[in-house]
Structure prediction request, 125 residues.
Amino acid sequence: MKKIISTTKAPGALGPYSQAVEANGTLYISGTLPIDPKTGQLYTGDIKIATKMAMENIKAILEEAGYGFEHVVKYTCLLKDLNNFAGLNEVVGEYYSINPPARATFQVAKLPLDADVEIETIAVR
Prediction:
């Protein structure tokens, strides 16, 4: 059985999908952008700021579902420019400093709203 997870502390979906879905003790968080949930505005610019915003949105969704970063087993980072890899790592490393999860990172041609970064997350209890 699946449970839809939604919080106003993270930006809403931009299409026909949920912020997150929990099924059988696994939480699947949709790709998360650096959008300010209060204003709905996308941040572009410094990759460290953009990454922190995306991670804080992920944190809000994790907390809404009763999970934390310690439950994350895999995440996928999509970057507009792979030259931002070091800045992304610096910020994400603050959230996953102990026992980091598995990860894949890709440079993509374009992201929704022309964002600089999008992060998808899977957590297990």
Notes: The mean pLDDT is 97. Strands lie at 2-5, 20-23, 26-32, 72-79, 102-107, 117-124. The chain has one domain: 2-124.
